[in-house]
Design brief:
Elements: H1 26-45, H2 50-54, H3 64-83, H4 94-98, H5 122-142, H6 145-178, E1 204-207, E2 210-214, E3 230-234, E4 236-240, H7 246-254, H8 266-275, E5 283-286, E6 289-294, E7 297-300, H9 312-321, H10 329-337, E8 349-355, E9 381-385, E10 401-403, E11 412-413, E12 417-420
Helix pairs in contact: 1-5, 1-6, 3-5, 3-6, 8-9
């Protein structure tokens, strides 16, 4: 697919910032942040062949090429189109191909068929990214103070949006590679991060009953679904100090956890039967030994590593097996903010028993960007923390991740809790 002849030539990117650039300068900060995030996306795609960038292994996942193009379209659609004088899209057809779910932005290609977009090529998507990068850096460099103030929150949304897709790039390619009979590694040198502190599933931290303030209400970036800040009454809670490990999960399996319908929610048991679940996603029994497939390839399951790639249904069944429950998202946020838990961030997302919904007083942003979070507030469960795939700078106690309860291809794990009436 050739680029449209209607495209304009974007301004050249500014010269590299000198080493002594004052990072308090908002223009310098934006340029540096934009370059850092855009470079990280390409770094994550670099180990993959062109064929691996096109594949789509299920409707929930997207090809790596699509992620790279969609995050580029986001800047073109929501920033360049309205704020860069004389800007013309790289290719007018890309809006249809690489829009995700922004109905207000126009028609879209079907999500389950993104893997059929063989054209434009991987190389042409690279050209698209370079074209938009040059236009964006030129826009930031040339903007007067008034325009820069307008651009800053939009660029922050775009960068955080791209960081979300950087995590999805790793979860989606892992799912695709798991279907290859050769089980190729994304990166043969990759290793699961170890627990930062040794604390078992049974160790707990006491949280007294009381009124607590949660939600984002301060400075710094946050998505609209993280606010408004508000007060909640937390019951007395004992929250697990550590994450549930593979050894803990093996005990659940050996006790017949996947065969006992009394441990499962009705829809969870239906998922077990329909999917033939008998272990976490990517676990394989080989010569009588459990192995797991990860970004580094196939390896023996490490008993002390946190369990990963389990659904909400599995997490809930395990909690019931252990005679405990999952934490509420409110308890998790308070505990995370007070640093009461080990390994809350950077290893696995942790399921909570809270349904994803609006905070009191929540209002979606106006326009197409208002479709970002609010329209998904139904039939999904909240995960808290962050994972090994979460980019640097994209972690905070108020962050609300959300997925459907049957989904388990994310880096999702379990922390337990108890509440006292």
């Amino acid at each position: 697919m050739a680029p449209s002849p209607l495209r304009s030539t974007p301004p050249a990117p500014p010269a590299p910032l000198p080493r002594d650039t004052d990072r308090r300068d908002p223009r310098a900060r934006l340029l540096a942040a934009f370059a850092t995030v855009r470079t990280e996306t390409e770094r994550r795609a670099a180990p993959l062949s062109d064929e691996e960038q096109v594949i789509q292994s299920m409707a929930d996942a997207s090809p790596i090429k699509w992620h790279r193009a969609h995050t580029t379209w986001f800047f073109e659609q929501f920033i360049l189109a309205g704020h860069a004088p004389g800007y013309r899209p790289f290719d007018d057809r890309f809006s249809f191909l690489f829009n995700s779910y922004y109905v207000a932005a126009g028609p879209r290609h079907e999500r389950p068929k993104r893997g059929l977009i063989t054209r434009p090529s991987v190389a042409e998507v690279g050209d698209y990214r370079a074209f938009v990068d040059a236009a964006m850096t030129g826009l930031i460099a040339d903007a007067d103070d008034t325009l820069l103030e307008t651009l800053q929150p939009l660029i922050e949304i775009g960068l955080n949006h791209e960081q979300q897709h950087q995590e999805l790039m790793l979860t989606d390619i892992l799912h695709a590679l798991s279907h290859n009979p050769l089980l190729p590694a994304y990166d043969a040198t990759w290793r699961m991060p170890g627990k930062r502190r040794v604390s078992g599933m049974s160790e707990v931290t006491e949280m007294p009953e009381g009124i607590q303030r949660i939600g984002h209400g301060g400075t710094g970036f946050a998505y609209d679904n993280e606010g408004p800040a508000h007060r909640v009454l937390l019951p007395q809670t004992r929250i697990g100090s550590g994450l549930v490990t593979n050894a803990d999960w093996m005990a659940f399996m050996e006790a017949g956890g996947y065969q006992d319908p009394m441990l499962w929610l009705s829809e969870g048991w239906a998922a077990v039967e329909a999917g033939g679940w008998d272990a976490p996603l990517y676990w394989r029994l080989k010569d009588g030994v459990w192995h797991s497939f990860g970004l580094g390839g196939l390896s023996i399951v490490e008993p002390e590593a946190p369990v990963c790639h389990v659904s909400y249904y599995e997490a809930d069944a395990f909690a019931r097996f252990a005679g405990r429950s999952l934490p509420t998202e409110q308890a998790f946020e308070v505990a995370a903010g007070q640093q009461l838990m080990d390994d809350a961030f950077g290893i696995v997302w942790q399921w909570t028993r809270s349904a994803y919904g609006a905070y009191p007083g929540y209002r979606a942003e106006p326009g197409a960007l208002g479709e970002y979070n609010g329209k998904f507030m139904v039939n999904q469960m909240v995960l808290r923390g962050s994972s090994l795939a979460t980019p640097d700078g994209h972690t905070r106690p108020t962050y609300r991740n959300f997925f459907h309860p049957h989904q388990r291809w994310q880096f999702s794990g379990v922390r337990l809790a108890d509440e006292t009436a």
